[in-house]
Specification:
Layout: E1 2-7, H1 14-25, E2 28-31, H2 32-41, H3 45-55, H4 62-76, E3 81-85, H5 91-104, E4 110-115, H6 118-128, H7 135-156, E5 161-166, H8 171-181
Parallel strand pairs: 1-3, 1-4, 2-3, 4-5
Helix pairs in contact: 1-8, 2-3, 4-5
């Protein structure tokens, strides 16, 4: 059983790789970003609140994200396992996720840490052309990542297996690096 968390800055390719890994290995894929975008699109209560926060380039509050993840992990894991994409993004979320894993009985989690240089990430984010990807919002999102999310990797050091993956190159090339590292 694979128990994976894909980690890295915005624009590094987490979503693309997580979807491909989930599809090819038969894993449950929880993309918190996709979940939130769907809620925004459907104008649910959560979606309306989330849109205001996302439009400012800020992170959706921990309580909301933790609830989404707990519910999804309790109901959707396949026998092959799961891959989390876009969560955890804060130390508090990581601590709460550890509690969820303990409750559900999951051990031996693997963190796939995708890395790419800041220039490449900025270029990718501008290129993908989402409405929430203006230069100003991207800069803010990258600052929030460095201040709030990057420290999560240190939190996991010594707790779980961390595999660093070069996130530069083509989608298939990066996917092969990931699969070979598992």
């Amino acid at each position: 059983m694979y128990k994976l968390i894909i980690f890295g800055p915005p624009g590094v390719g987490k979503g693309t790789q997580a979807a491909q890994i989930a599809s090819k290995l038969g894993l449950f894929h929880l993309s918190t970003g996709e979940y939130l975008r769907k809620a925004v699109e459907e104008k649910t209560e959560l979606g309306i609140k989330a849109k205001e926060i996302i439009d400012r380039g800020e992170l959706v509050p921990d309580e909301i994200m933790i609830g989404i993840v707990k519910d999804a992990l309790e109901k959707n894991i396949t026998p092959e396992g799961f891959i989390l994409d876009g969560f955890p993004r804060t130390i508090k979320q990581a601590e709460e996720l550890e509690k969820i894993f303990e409750e559900i009985g999951h051990k031996d989690i693997t963190i796939l840490s995708l890395n790419a240089d800041a220039e490449e990430i900025f270029r990718r984010l501008l290129k993908r052309g989402r409405s929430d990807d203006s230069e100003e919002t991207i800069k803010n999102r990258l600052e929030v990542y460095e201040k709030t999310t990057a420290p999560v990797l240190s939190f996991y050091d010594g707790k779980h297996n961390i595999i660093n993956i070069n996130g530069l190159g083509g989608i298939e090339e990066i996917y092969k690096r990931i699969i070979l590292s598992l």
